[in-house]
Amino acid sequence: MRAPIGNFAHSTAAPDVLGLLTPPVADAVRGWQGDVPADQLIFVDTDPEIADTAVFVEHYGPELLDHSANCVVVAGKRGGETTLAACLVLSRTRVDVNGAVRRELGARKASFAPMDTAVGETGMEYGGITPIGLPASWPLLVDSAVLDTEWVLIGSGRRRGKLIVPGKVFAQLPGAVVLEGLGV
Question: Where is the YbaK/aminoacyl-tRNA synthetase-associated domain (predicted)?
């Protein structure tokens, strides 16, 4: 199988490589439902040593800059309560934490969650957190521009490997809330 974007030596339908995914991501792929068949979730093997966006794009293909999205975990706080959520934005943008995120979560203050919280609560590796397999109770805030991207490169739950999925998939994930201007 050839990946629909990028210059990857190895690509495989994600359901065929569940052992290479973290347990929450593998469970989400195993139980996949939606308009897009699970075999359209493509796993590509990547070198974790060149995960930095600039080096990654140089190695695997310049068009990936326009097809990559970052998933970050945020914490919204209000009145002693903390709400964890995930945000998905195109890699060429940054998450509007103090505007769009804070408003959507109804929080007085919002910030990126500490690394140990993000890793511990998701069951994924730092630098590989992906929207597929997140806790179902979390809001998943998705920038609308991600949905308009035909194929999107995201983390696989690990630093080694990525997933390439159709952009429209993200609106169908548990807890998904599509927002204009989440990525600025």
Answer: 49-168
* Count of domains observed in the chain: 1
Report angle CA 150, 54, 49 to the nearest 5 degrees: 105
Residue 41 lies in a domain: yes
Contact 132, 29 (CB under 8 A): yes
Nearest CA-CA partner of 105 in 144, 141, 143: 141
pLDDT at residue 107, rounded to an integer: 97
Domain that includes residue 102, residue range: 11-179
The CATH number of residue 45's host domain is 3.90.960.10
Q: Does the predicted model carry a pTM greater than 0.90?
A: yes
How far is Cα 79 from Cα 166, in angstroms, rounded to an integer?
Answer: 38
Identify whether 154 is part of a domain: yes
Residue 117's identity, in one-letter code, is: T
Identify the CA nearest to 89 among candidates 29, 60, 41, 131. 131
Residue holding tokens 């949905």? Answer: 147
Residue 52 has pLDDT above 80, yes or no: no
Burial 142-175 (b: 16+ CB within 10 A, else e): bbebbbebebbbbbbbbbbbbbbbbbbbbbebeb
Helices (H) and strands (E) in the chain, counts: 5, 9
